Amino acid sequence: MEFGQVNFKCMELLDRANTETFGTPEPTRVLTDIKKGPFIVVSGHDLKDISQLLEQTKDKGINIYTHSEMLPAHGYPELKKYPHLAGNFGTAWQSQQKEFDNIPAPILFTTNCLMPQRPSYQDRVYTTSVVGYKGLTHITGDADGNKDFTPIIEHALRLGGYEHDHSMSGINGGHVLTTGFAHAAVLSHAEQIINSINQGHIRHIFLVGGCDGAHPGRNYYTDFVKQTPMDSLVLTLACGKYRFMIWILVRSTAFHVSLIWDSATIPTAPSRLL
Length: 274
What we know:
The protein is an alpha/beta fold. The chain has helices at about 1-20, 45-55, 75-80, 95-100, 150-160, 185, 190-200, 220-225, 240-250; strands at about 30, 40-45, 65, 85-90, 105-110, 125-130, 135-140, 175-180, 205-210, 230-235, 255-260.
């Protein structure tokens, strides 16, 4: 119990730091297709890093795409105000070797899981903060955490990005995600949710606190969610969302809905609930 209270306090402090700096997350639609031209992919959790990169790439003709756990950045008003925060690249961290293969753009890893790189993209991977790997360029900051991302920016311009718009989808299909459903957005609809529970539209609430691995057969959470009844509310933690959030969207013509609490992602169809 004591450990749980410490964890809760840490999350409270992190939430306060993020919202006081970047605003309260808002429901936001995010495209997964990649526009032609130069771009940079940012992976991890560090909102200050992506904020600095967005500012330094302003009016340079470079689009910025989030990757994996950086997806919620799109929901913060002080980040989404940048028009070149263009979308989300790929899916969960464990798919990076396949999805980054021959990518015509640099990738910045801030805090996320970095896997051994394939030769086809190793020369365009940059790290910062606690992330590092032998042979990769590491971006350091000053005492206040300010960083100069010029090497990444120049690299993006040299690579040039895709020649034509590039279509990408989630693990189970789909080309649009919706993020920004943090606790403030959800609680603003508390009355509708409670009414749906009282009326019997929502009879089950499940929390899926994990993510399936990359190896074949590791489908426990995916299989679990597929078996939940249609009158269920499914909340998830971690990158399990990439395994079944699009699949749930297909089912959500009734009342089945998925809320990704920590990464704040939700399919958009069941507007009768939220």
